[in-house]
Amino acid sequence: DHAALPPSPHARALVEVQNGCDHSCTFCIIPAGRGPGRSLPAGGVVERITALVAAGHREVVLTGVDLTSYGADLPGVPTLGHLVERILRLVPDLARLRLSSIDPAEVDDRLFALLAHEPRVMPHLHLSMQAGDDLILKRMKRRHSRAQAVSLVERLRDVRPDLAVGADLIAGFPTESEAAFENGRALIEECDIVHAHIFPFSPREGTPAARMPQVDPLLVRERAAILRDTAARVRRNWLAGLVGSVLSVLVERPGDTGQAENFAEVRFAARREPGTLISARITAAADDHLIGDIE
């Protein structure tokens, strides 16, 4: 029963709306461990979020193993876009809705429009890219091309310039050549990926990728370090570009830090109650966060 959750000291809540996966990426063991894709009916999601908002949460993050496949197993086959629309309509007091990692191949027109134009959907897109080279993407059995991922980011930024992009990227996937690696590194710069999660490839027993010709482990670690360095530089430049702007920040514990809509961390001197939404003028940028004055 979600009707009467106790008051929460946390500003943000995670709501899992989907679990499992019906795809067969060659490096992944999730389908074997989590089973097929399963979605929580929209009514249960809305009930849960309504209770969380009543308990004091200002932001909800929708999560799932394969979030953008939401609804494929439900009657009527509603999409993630349908779910987001329903949440925004039926929970008007929810200030912020954020999406966790989504698949570039599954962003339909409805979801695109919400990401592009809906102010309560945060301008923060985390993409499950995994690689930036078409041959490697094919060997991973991913369902998008490099050009499709780049195009999605460009089209969204055309209509929502403040969009901050994150991505998962694997370094040293089996058979990765220097040229393929460079395509992945360049993707970080082309898409201005400011929230990067870099993983050195590690074979999982029983997966097709574990049987492919492996890249030397030392080279895998070296390539992962290069990707992290590139991502850190792109992030520093992005943060520096935000100095002088005014951002809406959701205060989190202990009260002198928070997250902007674009998921940049903002720190400030004066404490505010966690869960408060403030306006902060950004006065400085560090390597991994911003410093601001409350307006």
Secondary-structure-derived class: alpha/beta
Overall tally of structural domains: 2
Find the CATH superfamily of the largest domain.
tm_1862 like domain
% residues in beta strands: 15-25%
Average pLDDT level: 94
Helical proportion, percent range: 25-40%
Q: Residue ranges: pLDDT <50 for 5 or more in a row?
A: none
Query: What's the level 1 CATH class of the largest domain?
Result: Alpha Beta
Helix tally?
8
Characterize the overall form: globular
Oligomer status? single chain
Order of helices and strands: EHEHEHEHEHHEHEHEEEEE
Q: What kind of sheet is the major sheet?
A: 5 strands, mixed, barrel
Arrangement of strands in the largest sheet? 8-9-10-12-11
Give the termini separation: 39 Å
- What is the CATH topology assignment of the largest domain? pyruvate-formate lyase- activating enzyme
Architecture (CATH level 2) name of the largest domain: Alpha-Beta Horseshoe
Number of strands: 12
Structure, briefly:
With 295 residues, the protein is an alpha/beta fold. It has 8 helices and 12 strands.
